[in-house]
Amino acid sequence: MILIGERINGMFKDIGKAVRAKDPGPIHEWAKKQTENRATYLDVNHGPAAEDRVDAMKWLVKTAQEASDTPLCLDSTNYDAIEAGLELCKRPALINSCPAERKKIERVFPMAKKYGASIIGLCMDAKGIPKNAENRVALAMELVAACVEFDVPIENLYIDPLILPVNVAQEHAPEVLETIRQAKLLSDPAPKTVLGLSNVSQKSLDRSLVDRTFVVLAMAAGLDGAILNVMDDALMDAIATARILLNKEIYADSYLKVFKGH
Amino acid sequence: MPVEIQKERYTSKVATVTIGATKEQGGTRTSVVTVGGDSTLPFLQFEGEIPNPPVIAMEVVDRNPDWNLSLKAEFGDDILSDPAKWAKKCVDECGAQLIYLRLQSADPELENSSPEKCAETVRKVLGAVGVPLIVQGCGVDEKDNVVMPMVAEAAAGENLLLGTAEQDNYKTLTAACMVHKHSVVASSPIDINICKQLNILINEMNLPLDRIIIDPSVGALGYGIEYTYSIMERIRLGALQGDRMLAMPVICNVAYEAWRAKEANAGEDEFPGWGPQAERSVLWEAATATNFLQAGGHIIVMRHPKAVKLVKKAIDDLMVPNKY
Questions:
Q1: Cβ <8 Å between A254 and B200
Q2: What is the C-alpha separation between A122 and B262, in angstroms, rounded?
Q3: What is the chain A residue with the closest CA to B242?
């Protein structure tokens, strides 16, 4: 399971403040903490408050890499900022993200090829997020086709079906699960699948419970990774246990400890 | 039309473990043995690397053993009563790459040898041969927990492989390996979950993963060989898929299991259709061993010089590169 730590994001007050003041402290702290909690990637997002996004992304990449060797997931809607970040990444990065829109595909995929980066491809286009699985999968197919067109290995594509908060749009959850199932059948080798997990629990009362229940359902459907709160022990334990129950990992009494120790 | 060979791509590989230490490394061995490092299933050289071929360890017992006479005749009572001479013969005449010394005389039901005597035996065998040693206790936990720490201390720096740690008795031996810089055999009863758990427990005591060898417990041909085969296959797949707690090389005690099979011991007078016992028993041991090579065994423990010769030939044949 690919675990993308969500915490270095300008939407969080401490990070937003740090980005504005160029204070490396909070970035170092969360890079280290999330790495210790076995993040595979660290998401870095300058947030809406950053004035110069290219500059903010460069600073974030540099600062995060001072504190940890964990590869980065560059999270921005500004592709110049992402490209500036890719230039500085010491290890192959993830680009977060690219919707199924021609213009954006033409900007992102060649950049991914140039830097050996992977791409989170969103099941949405200019019209927004489809309501059902069928239309989400159609968009996923466009992203798979773009891999062939721009010579990006299919394994470097992470299809994100886009989950919406369950307290306002619960009808999307089963469609997302179905999209994951079908995305894994789109090609051989199959693209990977990913979720911005915490979105499902926005403003729910027990966020951790909603997150861990949904991630287990999604793993059973074939989910390969998630952007999530790696500091949530109950969530991490649920993921470790799902890996055992899906026969992805061999059981041992101390499996939880081993999962955390990775 | 060219045939495209399908190749599996794995993310990880088997760990390497080195047994023995030369003078420069703090021991007295003239050669050391490194096993593991495989990045594919057994002998699929076209798919991955097999940097270290499997090795044969020959069994030596610290008392004249109660073995089949046809096997004992290969050595003679003079040799069988002297572990140092016995070990030397295994290395010089049979090409044993390791000696597997079983301290059976420590068994309270047998000679009940003292820990000091056992340590002395280990020193003598170390003095007689230059290859690395695997030292195995008598199998009675309470006694082994006194004997093995003394053996570990007496051979400090030699990087022995000491056996065996089991789920309900691993702490004493692991601690001895930690303190005196040896490696440990972690044994589980044909059970992959216990195998993994034991490796975790040993590693939690801070013994590094590259100082653990897995003993999955083997069954001889006709006695559950297929159960061990499938456990070993899962261990290897786990290792190749990145499970560090299953990535250790594997030891297979073929000697003990093959030689307690009825087919290795029953006389021709009893089963005329089975052919001569002396020949049949060699084949029984060699066939069992060869099976465990194919299953992914890294260290094969054997007894009969003729069976060893057959299996060494099989290893040479299997190690011929088969790249397409």
A1: yes
A2: 65
A3: A249
Q: Quick check: A189 contacting B, CB < 8 Å?
A: no
Backbone angles phi, psi at B184, to 5 degrees: -125, 145
- Asked if residue B9 belongs to a domain, the reply is no
* Complex ipTM value: 0.85
Q: Is the pLDDT of residue A102 over 90?
A: yes
What pLDDT was estimated at residue B6?
A: 86
Contact A250 B201 (CB under 8 A): no
| Domains of chain A, each with CATH number or no CATH | 2-261 (3.20.20.20)
Tell whether A251 lies on the interface with B, counting CB pairs under 8 A: yes
Residues in chain A with CB shorter than 8 Å from the CB of B201 are 254
According to DSSP, the residues that pair with B213 across neighbouring strands are: B185
- Count of beta carbons in the 10 Å neighbourhood of residue B140: 15
**By the CB < 8 Å criterion, does A253 face chain B?**
yes
Q: Which residues contact B47 (CB under 8 A, 6 or more apart)?
A: B7, B8, B40, B41
Residue A252 contacts B where some CB pair is shorter than 8 Å: yes
* Closest alpha carbon to B57 in B251, B215, B213, B220: B251
Q: Provide the CATH number for the domain around residue B129.
A: 3.20.20.20
Amino acid at B215: D
Residues in chain B whose beta carbon is closer than 8 A to a beta carbon of chain A? 192-194, 196-197, 200-201, 204, 234, 238, 243-246
Any domain includes B323: no
How many angstroms separate the CA atoms of A165 and B246, rounded? 40
| pLDDT single digits (tens) A45-72 | 998 877 899 999 999 999 999 999 999 9
Q: Is residue B223 part of a domain?
A: yes
- Asked if residue A214 has pLDDT above 90, the reply is yes
Contacts of B246 in chain A (CB under 8 A): 250
Structure tokens at A229: 């709160």
Low-confidence ranges of chain B (pLDDT < 70): 324
Mean pLDDT on A118-142: 97
Please count the structural domains in chain B: 1
Tell me the residue range of the domain where B133 lies: 44-318
Residue to substitute from A243, A250, A251, A255, interface B, most B β-carbons within 10 A: A250
Name every chain B residue with its beta carbon within 8 A of the beta carbon of A262.
244
Residue A262 has pLDDT above 60, yes or no: no
The answer to the question of residue B90 being in a domain is yes
What pTM value is reported for the model?
0.89
Residue B324: the pLDDT is 65
